[in-house]
Amino acid sequence: MKTKIFLLLTFLFSNFLTSTAQVTLNGVTLPAKLKQETTELVLNGGGIRTKIFFKLYTAGLYVTAKSKNGNEIAAADKPTAIRLTITSGMVDSEKMSEAIREGFGKSMKGNTAPLKTQIDNFVGTFNKEEIKEGDVYELWYLPGDGVKAFKNGKLQTTIAGLDFKKALFGIWLSDTPVDDDLKEGLLGL
């Protein structure tokens, strides 16, 4: 009898873990794990970037170990990724570039001068080809390599430096994020 109860509990617990392993938000399924080369990250949380009434994109934050501390995640010299799926036709290259620049301004409390060249190069990622609904951006930080930006699985650019990673992830995770509700979702709060 004890064995049957143990097996039943094990089955239920494993089903619970697998059923909560991925998250679907705004019609977008965020995978439980992301892999880049030999690095595998787990989903920390997810959320929706809204502006006025528009749901612009769905984001998932991926880390080596789950955390609820945005500043620590942004500052850590550890593999980290954020996955952005464009969910609105209102998002185009020009608006996304402008929003990313504004995000860096908030993340860096207005002092973007030290990273101006890196920010300019990164923003160029969103101008290489038109953005359309359904596009997926993955922004990976890999220690020693820097931030690698992918669009629909294709590498767009690499920006070196932990300072850049901290500023970039600070767009969503700093004390002054672009969207407080999105930050809470990414941190699983």
Per DSSP, the total helix count is 6
Spatial sequence of strands, sheet with the most strands:
3-4-5-6-7-8-9
- Poorly predicted residue ranges: 1-20
Q: Which CATH class?
A: Alpha Beta
Query: Within the CATH hierarchy, at the fold level, what is the topology?
Result: Chalcone isomerase
Structural class determined from secondary elements = alpha+beta
Name the beta content range: 25-35%
**What is the total number of structural domains?**
1
Number of strands: 9
Major sheet size, sense and barrel closure: 7 strands, antiparallel
Just name the CATH architecture.
3-Layer(bba) Sandwich
Q: Look at the structure and give the mean pLDDT.
A: 89
Gross geometry: globular
Provide structural commentary.
The chain is α+β, with helices and mostly antiparallel strands and 189 residues long. It has one domain (24-186): Chalcone isomerase (3-Layer(bba) Sandwich). It has helices spanning 2-19, 70-75, 93-107, 116-123, 162-173, 180-186; strands at residues 23-25, 28-30, 33-36, 39-51, 54-63, 80-86, 136-142, 146-151, 154-159. The strands form two sheets. It has a seven-stranded antiparallel beta sheet. The chain has a two-stranded antiparallel ribbon with strand order 1-2. A hairpin with a 3-residue loop joins strand 7 and strand 8.
